[in-house]
Amino acid sequence: MEEMMVVLDEEELLGCCGSTKFAKEMASASPFASLNQAVSAARHIWFNLVDVNGWLDAFSAHPQIGQSPSSQWSKAEQSTALATANESSSQELSDWNNRYRLRFGFIFIICASGRMAAEILAELKKRYTNRPIIEFEIAAQEQMKITELRLAKLFSAKAKASSATFQ
Amino acid sequence: MEEMMVVLDEEELLGCCGSTKFAKEMASASPFASLNQAVSAARHIWFNLVDVNGWLDAFSAHPQIGQSPSSQWSKAEQSTALATANESSSQELSDWNNRYRLRFGFIFIICASGRMAAEILAELKKRYTNRPIIEFEIAAQEQMKITELRLAKLFSAKAKASSATFQ
């Protein structure tokens, strides 16, 4: 089987991570021979080349956890959380999200995939006590997990489309 | 000798550190019985309460190292650097400052007091290789050193003024 090169453009990459610097650098590094190669490039770019303003840009591109997500990806990632929340836990999550944003200046970022509402709330309360710079780095690590999941979906969709073309 | 309480207002505190959050929290914590007490409060507020946007605000309140400083404090702090710079080292410092700002998204912050131009340039080049999040925290530590020096000057000026009043 010959190696497939996957091309990712800036717009697709912005959907994985809302920092323009990230999307531009990744698009320059594209095409990728494998998902692993794309993830390695993404990690290098995110942690070494994107500056703190770029991190803040990416954070602000997300819907708040527990709010009705506008993108299909956010909706899928938060489906467990949304299914396990009731009215009172939704309210508590919303209150704590507000407290978090007031304290840190950006929204609470968590890779929500497969996590229940109660788990997310407990994590938010725990992280709320962190120093701002520590929390900033944790949020960036969570953002990277989200980016990796989205890159994997993008790769799998492209691979299917490509194998359909070559049949 | 009775204990003197030193009152610091928001405007004076903004001159020590250009984050509004910092100045407001410090003004609330004022008056202070000693410089040590003020510095402890300042460290707590800066590292635990001021968020990453507040850090960026404080950084952007500084003149670039090597550029003619507008405030008297910056001028005094950079006096050794300015006295030891020649035309070529000034140019090199300016070039590296631009590279630094492009990489990190904020200006190079260093407690310049007593440091020669060549030392500052060497430090800038060394710090340029750091990851953005690491450099962000180092810059915040340098900002705190600058704030401490300025608080000490403010305290000493106020103590003099106060002892003059009570003579």
Written overview of the protein:
2 copies of one chain form a homodimer. By secondary structure, chain A is mostly helical. Helices cover 70% and strands 0% of the residues of chain A. The first copy, chain A, is built from 9 helices and no strands. Chain A has helices spanning 10-16, 20-29, 35-49, 52-60, 72-77, 79-84, 87-104, 117-128, 132-165. The first copy, chain A, is globular. At the A-B interface, helix 3, helix 4 and helix 9 of A face helix 3, helix 4 and helix 9 of B.
What best-fitting shape of chain A do the alpha-carbon axes yield? globular
Number of strand segments of chain A: 0
- Poorly predicted sequence stretches spanning 5 or more consecutive residues of chain A: none
Largest interface: A-B, 20 and 20 residues
DSSP summary: helix tally of chain A: 9
Mean pLDDT of chain A: 90
First and last CA, distance of chain A: 13 Å
The largest β sheet of chain A comes out as: none
Integer-rounded radius of gyration of chain A: 17 Å
Pattern of helices and strands of chain A: HHHHHHHHH
**Which band does the percent of strand residues of chain A land in?**
under 5%
